[in-house]
Automatic annotation (TrEMBL):
It comes from Paracoccus solventivorans. Keywords: Ligase, Magnesium. The lineage of its organism: Bacteria, Pseudomonadati, Pseudomonadota, Alphaproteobacteria, Rhodobacterales. This is L-glutamine synthetase. The keyword Ligase applies. The keyword Ligase applies. GO terms for biological process: glutamine biosynthetic process; polyamine catabolic process. It comes from the Bacteria. Residues 117-450 form the GS catalytic domain. GO terms for molecular function: glutamine synthetase activity.
Length: 450
């Protein structure tokens, strides 16, 4: 066995299980969370400690265009990519025996590249560590299984189930609804097991063909890696059964959107939850964390809702909180405190869409809580009623969200000013491209009437 194979997780070693390893996929998550990098023969990977990619991969938009470089000339210097062997994972859908590995992104002096999303999340975790804290997160992933759609001009449809009927909406928590596309779910379980991932539960959500997967709580960087991998494995499982998996925030008109709810807690150096005191009561730190989210989430929404489609999820009456209220066991609030014992006391951020880059979504959410802990403000009074009736406090489009982000000095300080500038440049480019597209609604209602 090559020396590097002794450093990889047990699940990856078990996947190889004495077979000849053919290929290694060397991966970097870009601004959108798309896997960039290169594949190479395993024998070549074993002989090199790093490889190079141009820094322009972080200026590429979701459409494949290139945004302006805020720092000046577009010279595309190489970055150094070093494998993080703890992230080595199977790619069980490939024909050959293949492993994939996420790489750390460094400049040529060996410093973390500040615009790489994984480094942004590491930066936030390090801020917590400097205070003697360790953040814990538990993400929930919602997504749709949909019929194959090869014509973007046609609306998305629910998938065909094993009954021969299309998946029905309004079947939340129905086991028979999940069974309609059980073969896809079976492959998701099999792929996750091969990759060493722990699924906490799978359930049917409220939309037609909408599924939710819950992950066990843990380290933010490790869980962002898992979500990054999960998006790929879920797509591959769906393709095996003649359907697509989509993580768009709002893929089907008239259906609920897909969220990435994030549960947060913070422990001290001894592993004690700082949200609970020795008597099990809520602490001031717990309230400070909520206050930080209320104060700074508007400036972070551009990271939690990164596309024009994201804001179609923020509409009333579709089970998406569009407020910054907080409440205990209240699913109408943007910030929910679930029922739990003192050890598991946590805050659930229900604003993030599943279309966000998981590294940036977790970084932004944790950053707002961190600001609350350090500024020690108090939250508004708990919402005891229906928060859906509250006034809108969030930006309603990507342009406004970007304005709030770039104008927020605290968000710039914690996420890094260079990253904020690059992110804004990429997203302004995408927004400008979208505004040049004429929608069917405009043609239907404006063509002959205005």
């Amino acid at each position: 066995m090559s020396d590097w194979l002794t450093k990889i997780p047990e699940a990856a070693r078990e996947y190889i299980a004495g077979r000849r390893l053919d290929e290694v996929e060397c991966i970097v998550p870009d601004i959108a969370g798309v896997a960039r990098g290169k594949a190479m023969p395993a024998s070549k990977f074993a002989r090199q400690e790093s490889f190079f990619l141009p820094n322009s991969i972080f200026l590429q938009t979701i459409t494949g265009e290139w945004a302006d470089n805020p720092s000046g000339a577009f010279t595309e210097p190489d970055m150094v990519l070093v494998p993080d062997h703890e992230t080595v994972s199977a790619a069980p859908w490939t024909a050959d025996v293949t492993l994939q590995v996420i790489h750390d992104v460094l400049d040529q002096q060996g410093n973390p590249v500040p615009v790489a999303p994984r480094n942004v999340l590491k930066r936030i975790v390090a801020l917590y560590a400097e205070r003697g804290w360790r953040p814990i997160v538990a993400p929930e992933m919602e997504f749709f299984l949909v019929a194959r759609n090869i014509d973007p001009n046609q609306p998305i449809q629910p998938p065909m189930g094993r009954s021969g009927r299309r998946a029905a909406a309004k079947q939340a928590y129905s086991l028979s609804a999940v069974d309609e596309y059980g073969k896809v779910i079976d492959d998701i379980y099999d792929f996750a097991e091969a990759q060493g991932f722990e699924i906490d539960g799978i359930l049917q959500e409220g939309g037609a063909g909408q599924v939710e997967i819950n992950l066990a709580h843990g380290d933010p960087v490790a869980l962002a890696d898992e979500i990054f991998y999960f998006k790929r494995l879920i797509r591959e499982a769906a393709l095996r059964h003649d359907c697509f998996a989509t993580f768009m925030a709002k893929p089907i008109e008239g259906e609920p959107g897909s969220a990435m709810h994030i549960h947060h807690s913070v422990v001290d150096a001894a592993g004690r939850n700082i949200f609970s005191d020795e008597q099990g009561r809520e602490t001031p730190a717990f309230m400070h964390f909520i206050a930080g989210m209320q104060a700074h989430l508007p400036a972070a929404i551009a990271l939690l809702a990164p596309y024009v489609n994201s804001y179609r999820r923020y509409v009333p009456d579709f089970a998406a909180p569009i407020n910054l209220e907080w409440g205990r066991d209240n699913r109408t609030t943007g910030l929910r405190v679930p029922i739990s014992g003192p050890v598991a006391r946590r805050v659930e951020n229900r604003l993030a869409g599943m279309d966000c880059n998981p590294y940036l979504g977790l970084a932004a959410s944790l950053a707002t809580g961190y600001l609350g802990l350090t500024q020690q403000d108090s939250p508004r009074a708990e919402c005891l009623g229906d928060a859906y009736m509250s006034e809108d406090e969030l930006p309603t489009n990507l342009g406004d969200a970007l304005d709030l982000m770039v104008e927020s000095d605290p968000i710039r300080e914690v996420l890094g000013s260079e990253f904020v500038d690059v992110y804004e440049s990429v997203k302004r480019n995408e927004y400008k491209e979208f505004l040049q597209v004429i929608s069917p609604w405009e043609r239907e209602h404006l063509l002959l009437n205005v």
